[in-house]
Design a protein that fits this description.
There is one protein chain. The chain is mostly beta strands. The chain contains 3 helices and 35 strands. Strands 16, 17, 18, 19, 20 and 21 form a 6-stranded antiparallel beta sheet that branches. Strands 4-1-10-9-8 form a 5-stranded mixed beta sheet, with no helix packed on it. A 5-stranded antiparallel beta sheet has the order 3-2-5-6-7, with helices on one face. The longest helix has 23 residues, at 2-24. It is elongated.
Length: 529
């Protein structure tokens, strides 16, 4: 009996020793190559007819490609709507660190994965491949097929809940949607002839091995100047007293209306005349303030986050060409960001990453325009308001316009105090004279509600000051909640000049309630051109 027990113990010890030896040997001896398949799909109305992915760099967990099957320059062909990467599966922090370091830094200098669809950093990853993704896409708009290449795209694989899940990213991509939005990424590509292409890719909320092309659009050349009005004083005088009601449908949320409200509002028409609306919204319960945008007459609006974490108070805005400038204030300073509105065509909102105007004062609202000085040099003019009731100060900045708005470098050229804190205002350039006018929108208290006034001033481009108001109109709003919560210049208010030279003033009510419609009013000038 003792001999049997001794023999059994020897066998167990030998088995244990063998197990330890196996664990200590080179992992490559025991790894298994896997066929890792990621599927590329397209939203309704789009079809991906062909594609390729050329690897420019990669990271694989140590020991998971002992035969060196994966190389820089390797081309993967889209077959039956899939790419296949032959490599072993073993998660590691080293691959994740490599990936996270490359696909972060759009919204914040910190490493936070905001160039991925998930808008977060990855945990352990099995592998990550970066390369040029080329696709041919057909649709009703592109029936012959649109060829586009997205440089610096990435496919990576991790593991969650016993499943291998994929990541999608781009070195220049931007996760623009707010926390309530989908897991999409604004990606940038180009056609063989050099045209810029915007696209939105989804990875998250779909199959764990599925990357879906949601929308794609060839961008028109950007409009980078303001539209002029033939006779600004005449256009102002022609504004009606009564506002025209427009209820915006599909507003994406109330963002806790007890403490937050709409801060800025503007209309925006594409070059073809398609109308959008833009709103800025404070959000004290989220890391970022929000920008809300969508078709004016559509039943869906989209929420986007501003780019500075913990700067939750954006201000009044104004559109210039295909761009909108958005101020965000915090304590006694502010940053002004620039956004490219052409990307709304794919339900995304690109922040111009090279543009960030930091100022040492608050910025409750701003106005912007372009003009030519007496010598014929074209400039951008930006007025940024430090709102403090009767102690408000309006700071004036100017930049040469020759390089376009994305490259504009603004310097302060003056400032002026004013006893009205315009929550929304706009700058308007007059055609021919190049005179700059400022339209101030003000809502003083009037019993149980607000009164709403529009004022017209001329900005002196020598002293960078305004004088007494040239004209004023007591506006009357309609719709929305009654009293102080209704449509007033106190909330979202703005000035917009369209392609025809028509000037429109706008206002919103304080907030939508539980995602309901939002009442707005427009006051449009007669055609003076």
């Amino acid at each position: 009996m003792k001999r049997c027990v001794k023999k059994l113990l020897c066998l167990l010890l030998a088995a244990a020793a063998l197990t330890l030896t196996v664990g200590a040997e080179d992992a490559s001896t025991y790894m298994t190559y896997r066929q890792n398949v990621v599927e590329l799909t397209a939203a309704e109305g789009l079809t991906i007819t062909s594609g390729s992915f050329v690897v420019t760099e990669f990271s694989i967990t140590e020991g998971q490609d002992p035969d060196g099957k994966n190389q820089v320059g390797q081309t993967h062909i889209l077959e039956n709507g899939t790419f296949t990467f032959e490599v072993g599966r073993k998660g590691s922090a080293a691959v994740a660190d490599w990936f996270n370091g490359k696909f972060s830094g759009y919204n914040d200098p910190a490493v936070n994965g905001d160039r991925t669809t998930f808008d977060q950093t990855a945990g352990d990853l099995n592998f990550a491949f970066v390369g040029d993704l080329s696709l041919v896409v057909t649709s009703a708009e592109y029936p012959q097929g649109l060829s586009v290449t997205f440089p610096g795209a990435a496919f990576a694989q991790g593991n969650t809940a016993f499943r291998n899940n994929w990541w999608f990213a781009q070195l220049t991509g931007q996760h623009t949607r707010d926390g309530d939005g989908p897991d999409t990424l604004l990606a940038f590509g180009s056609t063989p002839s050099g045209e810029t292409v915007f696209a939105s890719f989804l990875r998250g909320g779909n199959g764990v091995s599925e990357v879906s092309l949601q929308a794609i659009s060839v961008a028109e050349p950007a409009r980078e100047r303001s539209y002029a009005v033939a006779d600004v004083p005449a256009a102002f005088r022609s504004l009606p007293v009564d506002g025209t009601l427009c209820n915006l449908e599909g507003f994406p949320g109330s963002y806790d209306p007890t403490v937050n409200h709409i801060q800025g509002y503007s209309l925006y028409n594409t070059e073809s005349g398609f109308p959008y609306v833009l709103l800025t919204h404070s959000v004290s319960t989220a890391p970022y303030a929000h920008i809300v945008a969508g078709p004016k007459l559509g039943d869906e609006k989209w929420g986007f986050k501003t780019y500075l974490r913990n700067w939750r108070h954006p201000g009044g805005i104004q559109v210039i060409g295909d761009y909108v400038l958005v101020p965000s204030e915090h304590a006694s300073s502010a940053h002004i960001a620039l956004y490219d509105l052409r990307t709304l065509a794919v339900e995304e909102l690109r922040r111009v990453e090279g543009f960030d105007l930091a100022v040492d004062h608050k910025a409750g609202a701003l106005g912007v325009t372009s003009y030519r000085d007496a010598g014929g040099t074209e400039y951008y003019v930006l007025v940024v308001a430090h709102l403090d009731n009767a102690n408000s100060v309006y700071h004036v900045y100017r930049a040469p316009a020759a390089g376009g708005i994305e490259a504009a470098t603004f310097t302060e050229v003056g400032s002026f105090p004013y006893d009205k804190d315009f929550q929304g205002f706009g700058l308007v350039t007059e055609e021919g004279t190049n005179d700059i006018y400022m339209v101030g929108l003000w809502s003083p208290s009037e019993g149980a509600t607000f009164a709403d006034y529009a004022y017209l001033y001329r900005l002196d481009t020598q002293t960078w000051t305004i004088g007494e108001a040239l004209d004023s109109i007591h506006m009357v709003s309609t719709g929305g909640l009654p009293g102080v919560m209704g449509v007033h210049f106190r909330y979202g208010a703005g000035t917009y000049v369209d392609q025809s030279g028509r000037m429109t003033l706008s206002a919103t009510e304080r907030n939508s309630v539980l995602g309901s419609s939002l009442a707005t009013n427009d006051w449009s000038s007669a055609d003076t051109n």
